[in-house]
Amino acid sequence: MRAALALLARGVPMQRIRRTVDGVRRRMPELDRPLLRLRVLGDGSEAVVVAHEGVLLEAGGQLVLDFRLSTEESVAALPGSVPEAETALACFERGCAADSEPRRFGEAIAAYRRALELDPDFADAHCNLGTVFYNQGRHAESRDCFKRSLALAPDHLESHFNLGNVLEEEDRNEGALKHYKEATRIDPLFADARLNLALLYEKLGLRRTARVHWRRYLQLEPRGPWADVARKHLGEPPAA
């Protein structure tokens, strides 16, 4: 799944990824792990092909002749597709394995930074690096990471939500509202963004608007401590 996320971060539609991989698997069942061999032709066409033994294959298994392959600019390798000992995706996965433990934050930061050296356009790596910085209390650095992630992937859900958190802690409430709203637009079922909107509107004294988000939060998360808080703000009895 992470490999697919890395491909999507480059702007390649998931339908096109699946079609290419499934087609090559049908035509060449002996080909091992075609997802890791995916490449995008660098001509603006977003054509997805599989690189195998020096040639390119389309979804239907057809050979693609591209005489520009002699130059590095003609084909842009996606994270995880370069047959090297160290790839951006491998570094990203090392970071993911370490970023939930405070004692391993340094390891996670080093892994994400290496991923970004190999692929500066890796939006997920920017976001995850920002999250580690945030958890260390390094808010300025985390804010910059989330902004870089959004510059690369404007609909990056986690980056909008996390940037909203940073801005709210800095009392930049209008900016926080903007990013929480974007998170709910991207994923209307994202309960945490609804919760943060309700809390922030309460803090700003806009209780009528806050009630809208409390109700929506309850629809998404009818049980739990924050659901009880929502009912209290709405004047409803606790859940039975």
Textual characterization of the structure:
With 240 residues, the chain is α+β, with helices and mostly antiparallel strands. It has a domain at 2-77. Helices cover 57% and strands 7% of the residues. The protein is built from eleven helices and five strands. Strands 4-3-2-1-5 form a five-stranded antiparallel β-sheet, with helices on one face. A hairpin with a 6-residue loop joins strand 1 and strand 2 (48-52). The longest helix is centred in the first third of the chain and has 14 residues, at 14-27. The chain is elongated. Mean pLDDT is 78; it is low at 1-10, 34-46 and 59-84.
Relevant terms:
240 residues, 5-stranded antiparallel sheet, 11 helices, 5 strands
Q: What is the topology?
A:
Layout: H1 2-9, H2 14-27, E1 38-41, E2 48-52, E3 55-57, E4 63-64, E5 75-77, H3 88-98, H4 105-118, H5 123-135, H6 139-152, H7 157-169, H8 173-186, H9 191-203, H10 207-220, H11 225-234
